[in-house]
Amino acid sequence: MLLQVFTCLCLVTISPAAFAQLPTYQFTRIDINQGLSAGQVNCILKDDQGFLWVGTVSGLNRYDGVHFQVFHHAPRDSSTLSSSFISTLEQGPGGRLWVTTFSGQDVYDPRTETFRRNAGAVQQAMGLDSGTVRHIVRDYRGWYWYLLPQAGLQAYDPATGKVFRLRAGKDSIHLLTNDIANLGTDARHHYWVLHTNGVLEDVEPQRFRVVKRYRFLPSAATAQHCALLIDHAGDCWIYNPTGPAGVYRLQTSTGQVTLYQTGPGPTALNNNIVRGVVEDDQGQIWIGTDHGGINVLDITRTHIRYVQNNPEDPKSLSQNSINALYRDSSGMIWVGTYKRGLNYYHEHLSKFALYQHQPYNPQSLPYDDVNRFVEDAKGNLWIGTNGGGLLYFDRQQHRFTQYRAGMPEAPGSNVIVSLCMDHAQKLWIGSYFGGLDCFDGKHFTHYANDPRVPDNSIWELYEDRQKRLWIGTLGHGLCWTDSLRKDFHLVNNDPLHLLYISTLLEDKAGNLWIGGDKGLEVLQPDGRFKVFTSNPGSLSDNLIICLFEDSRGWIWAGTREGLNLYDPQQQRFRVFRKEDGLPDNAVLNILEDGQHQLWMSTTNGLSALSIQLPDSSFTFRNYGEADGLQGKEFNENAALKTRAGELIFGGGNGFNLFYPDNIAANKQPPRVVFTDFQIFNSSVHAGEIINGRVLLPQAMTQTQSITLRYRENVFSISFAALNFLHPEKNRYRYKLEGFNTQWLSTDALQQKITYTNLDPGDYTFRVMAANNDGIWNEQGATLHIKILPPFWRTPLAFLLYALAVIGALLLARYYLLEKERFKFRLERERQEAQRMHEMDALKLRFFTNISHEFRTPLSLILSPVEKLLRHAGEQAQKTQLELVQRNARRLLNLVNQLLDFRKLEVEPIKLHPAEADIISFLQELTVQFSDLSEKKQVGLQFHSNLQTLTMLYDADKLEKILFNLLSNAFKFTPAGGRVSVTVSLVPGEGGEPDLLQLQVKDTGIGIPAEQQERIFERFFQHDVPASMVNPGSGIGLSITREFVRLHQGRITVESAPDQGATFTVWLPVHTLSQAAPVSGQVHAVISAPEGSTSEASGPAGNKPLLLLVEDNEDFRFYLKDNLRQYFRIAEAGNGQDAWEQLQNLQPDLVISDVSMPLMDGLQLCAHIRKQPRTAHLPVILLTARAAEGMQLEALESGATEYVTKPFNYEVLLSRIRNIIQRQQALSKHLHPHPEVDPVPVSITTQDERFRQAAMQVIEAHLSDPGFSVEELSQALFMSRVSVYKKLLAVTGMPPLEFIRSLRMKRAAQLLKESQLTVAEVAYEVGFNNPKNFSRYFKIAYHMLPSQYQKRQAGTTPEPS
Predict the structure, then answer these.
(1) CATH code of 930's domain
(2) For 317, which DSSP code?
(3) Where are the bilayer-spanning segments (predicted)?
(4) What backbone phi and psi angles, to 5 degrees, belong to 445?
(5) Whether 1119 and 1041 share a structural domain
(6) If you count DSSP H runs as helices and E runs as strands, how many of each does the chain have, helices first?
(7) What is the CA radius of gyration of the chain?
């Protein structure tokens, strides 16, 4: 059995020769993701202000711990770097930097943040020699020593501005040469001068005499580029960064020279290419190599350690190729790598030693998630884990041993939640669902499922001073066993109310404090219990996580809602929370160090509480992951204080073990600088012109005061604390004196403060900063800000204000009086508006009443007309009666529509449905529009997929629905278009009734998409083309939609401009009877569009010709039908059409309506009067507007008569006859016309009739240039051959010559009697080209038309 145990232990035990986790060098990395301009770092320097400067291959970086400011080369700006490739950095007096770039050496001026590319000129201005500066060293006097090629040593004293030169001499006390490779100073202030020939000299500082020379470098070529370091002991370290030469050490006390390079031995380097050498605070020498990382040489122990990159460790060196090493004044070591940016190290970066599992290190902690610690008598640790079993850490042998469940000797579960080492050095183990175990050093005793132990989840184990072992469970309360550990006793649930026991504590008075999920209970020595629960003045939370009694005897309780301190005098608790300084309200463990300082683990790091007596001031100092903690969150009860005073805190990522006394605070207060100034979020640079002047003469880091104008009072100030040790933990306090009196706080994430709309005045901005350990720089930084007042706050402005006040007082009375007048006018306007509203209502009622009165006369008109229609015999009479009936019905519909609209305004309209066949009803209504279809030459069709459908509907309202839809369709459809009515039955869905679908579709002008929703609004009329007149009122579709809604239906429209419109009405089908619809197609072409017919005219003869211009077809038909027996009639639908006809027509009189599309009657009349050829025509205007102003406008436009509608037909006829007679009499008087007769021939009476008929036809078409023999034959109802033979026999001329002869005779008459020009006469007799007319006229009359007109012959010569 012992052999098995030994074998198992060997399997889980790391080799005794293995060492524990040595403290590693943990670096913080900075790369391009944090703002660094490039990954290759060539040089590093920290200036006097505290900024860190980093030279890379792509720019110079200034780092303040949080942000980078990058300086680049700009080709067009001479104040920038000469190249972005930075090689070396040296600081000179005044904070100026000598920057060596790929293109030369520049000098940076911190006052203006600009560069001078001619460094030699700067050096000459200082009194130095020009040339490339190799190195600058500041000594104890404050002198700056410049190393220039072949120039010896030159020291510049900034206090006096003088230059001291140290050159080579012939004796041994002077420098050996003037070509210096490097320079250093030791603690004695001696100068160590390294010449390029390899000679090293020790120069004393008083008389600058060489004390000793050393010659140990192998060659001068090696020394030309060598660098020099003087350590704290005064030893010299020399290396050449350009080659594999290792490092030389000169021990100045003995003169011994040691070469460190690769090879065997405890101090051998791993690479001979050395890029940098620095000394840390412990006196160890850091040697940066190329591809070898950093070699840390401990001279005292003669040991070297290689610090290299570990790909699995993010806190290791980022790369093994080192380009630069630099140690700043705070002891921080900065490492520049070849491609992986910047690294820095400080011994206090990681304050806490960390033990955790590392896959690459078999010597590390086997399992990370630790729950409990206990120390044995040897000072070794037992560790309970959350899934990794039990661990034993032998600290002397640096070895971990792991016990896992399932092994012959192991605890009952791998989840260990409690541990206790009793007085007999037996280890008691409580696990989760694994019961209670006891380990005596060799064997485990299991109490799992033991009836004496109430639960298998043992959450807390505690041995009191009486050696009793208390056992707290997860859900069955508390039990205990005496020192013999034979019997277990359950604490009765009557006095103890806790079932979940989370923590136990025996205080100095012997009270047992028991924490659980229902508060805190105290078992007193007399057996009584005292209970504390969460109440005001009591515990902050009922769930107790940990209990602790400190050296003062104070009882502390940690909960999820804060830290509780018990006051025994008042028996109350004082609560500490985040607002008091804790990193989080959840306190998981409490320990005390030797300085009476409490250490607490939380869910957000560790906190150290310092208590100052007697005033009992409490100060928290918090630590996070950046300080080396295993994580933000720790585990409950995972804490221990060892007998040696070490504190251990564990969590899910391992545990931290440390001596509290070794946790040193950073005592250096950080310097605070201003880094940027912005106006309206735009940075202001030194020397930049803002609003016409230079706002910052110097850089913001050098500025102490700023003067702003009034409109520049929105500004931001950026600042930084130049502390690089955990800069993310820097804290700030700031205030703007003159604006606020209280200090405000911010952190490293918010280093810019913005003020807006400040009043003019003087302000002082103060900012203080604290470092990572809360050490404040109380002096901080100060910036004085003056905001100038605007003009309106100057003394002159106040004088103007006084004058303005006086003027305002003078205006006040006028204003008050005007206000009263305004109130009076407003009241009058209100009364007038009320009166107008009442008047409008009265007008509407009056109009409605008149409309009611219209219905009776209209009914009396319609009834007799319908009776006369049934008995009318003659077609002409029937046509007249149909005209009366149609317009009376239209007027009746308009009256009914107006009455319906009035009803909708004042009261709801009721539906009166009746059951009937709706298909036949809709077809009959559609047929009623047949005459309108024929007159407008618009096709009309009716189609239905049902022959009959009996349903409930209101016939009156359905008739109005279809009437409005068809009326609109015909109104907006031009001639040649089509209107169709389609009826179909749509089956209902989901139990809904069937729907009757009624569609009215036209091919008219369409409706724009943006107006389709508005057409159903009352009084809305959308724009129509100028060729159409919209006489509607805008209420038809509104009424239609209301009537459709009464039928519980809906109406929609689909349309696009110039593509017609489709109105669709859905009506639910409701029936009383069970009559089924009869399917079948019903298709009727009610009328089809016809081609344009020639304009009607009366019978031929000598009747006067009238031109009727009227857009209403019915009215035009009425006039034409009544006047045609007395006159010849020509028709036009609008003024534009009429004017075009007048170009080829000479009527005796024009009768025109006033309101028409395209061109109204007034415009037509004006056109007629302007044209000389038509100026003599009489014009009668017809209109329904009888106002005198309208009549005057018509007469001024040239109208002969103005007749208002309605008019008496006989009166109109008399006026027409009188005007024509007066016109004819005047024409005869002014222009007597001779008879134009052909030469008498002996013909028969029949030939004479034929000749007269032919002349009449030709004279009717004289002005038509396209009139041909073919048209003459058609007009005479003869063939072309017959007309040719007949005319040749009767007149002796063929038809073409006969037509031309009459044209010439008429032309001669017009030339002689009229005032027309030759061109106008040519057009009147049918010639398109006046030149052709002149040629034919000369053939006929042997002279040109113009000559003929001048002769004014008394008789018309016959054409030859």
Answers:
(1) 3.30.565.10
(2) -
(3) 796-816
(4) -105, 130
(5) no
(6) 21, 80
(7) 59
Query: What are the structure tokens assigned to 493, written together?
Result: 């649930």
Same domain, 219 and 83: no
- Choose the final residue of a domain: 793, 821, 838: 793
Beta bridge partners of 489: 480
Is 495 part of any domain? no
Q: What angle do CA 41, 45, 48 make, to 5 degrees?
A: 155
Residues 1057 and 926 placed together within one structural domain of the fold: yes
From the list 919, 946, 953, the residue with the least C-alpha distance to 1072 is: 953
Q: In this structure, what CATH number is given to the domain that contains residue 1122?
A: 3.40.50.2300
CATH code (residue 744): 2.60.40.10
| Domain membership flag for residue 31 | no
Same domain for 1216 and 1189: yes
Domain of residue 676: give its range. Answer: 672-793
**Helix, strand, coil percentages, rounded to 5, for the chain:** 25, 30, 40
d(CA 859, CA 871): 19
Same domain, 235 and 153: yes
Alpha-carbon gap, residue 872 to 881, rounded angstroms: 9
Mean pLDDT of 1008-1013: 78
Phi, psi for residue 1213 in degrees, rounded to 5: -65, -40
| DSSP run (H or E) holding 785 | strand 776-787
pLDDT-derived band at 778 (thresholds 50, 70, 90) equals: very high
The model's pLDDT over 727-775, given as tens digits with 9 standing for 90+, comes to 999 999 999 999 999 999 999 989 999 999 999 999 999 999 999 888 9
Contacts of 994 (CB under 8 A, 6+ apart): 985, 986, 987, 988, 1068, 1069
Q: Is 855 exposed, middle or buried (0-12, 13-18, 19+ CB in 10 A)?
A: middle
Residues 1018 and 1122 in one domain: no
Among 793, 827, 844, where does a domain finish? 793
Each residue's pLDDT tens digit, 302-323 = 999 999 999 988 899 999 999 9
pTM to 2 decimals?
0.59
Total count of domains within the chain: 6
Tokens encoding 54 = 């980093």
Q: H-helix or E-strand containing 996?
A: strand 995-1002
Element (H, E) at 383: strand 381-385
898 has a pLDDT exceeding 70: no
Whether residues 934 and 1071 share a domain: the answer is yes
Cβ neighbours of residue 1245 closer than 8 Å, sequence gap 6 or more: none
Report pLDDT digits (tens) over 788-846.
Answer: 998 888 888 889 989 999 999 999 989 899 989 999 999 999 898 888 877 867 766 77
Residue 771 domain-assigned? yes
Q: What angle do CA 1059, 1064, 1067 make, to 5 degrees?
A: 175
The dihedral over CA atoms of 953, 956, 959, 965, expressed in degrees to the nearest 10, equals -100
Amino acid residing at 1118: Y
Q: Are 953 and 916 in contact (CB under 8 A)?
A: yes
962 vs 978: CA distance, rounded Å: 16
Q: Give the DSSP letter of residue 811.
A: H
Both structure tokens of 366 = 């086997």
What's the rounded Cα separation, in Å, for the pair 1234 and 1231? Answer: 10
Q: What value does the mean pLDDT take over residues 377-383?
A: 96
CATH of the domain at 1339: 1.10.10.60
Q: Is 1015 part of a structural domain of the chain?
A: yes
981 lies in the same domain as 1128: no
pLDDT tens by residue, 1246-1287: 777 888 888 888 888 888 887 887 788 888 878 776 777 777
Q: How many CB atoms lie within 10 A of CB 1129?
A: 22
Please state whether beta strands 488-490 and 478-481 pair in parallel, antiparallel, or not at all (unpaired): antiparallel
Per-residue CA distances from 831 to 817, 836, 842, 1048, 1050 (Å): 21, 9, 16, 43, 42
* CATH code, domain with 140: 2.130.10.10
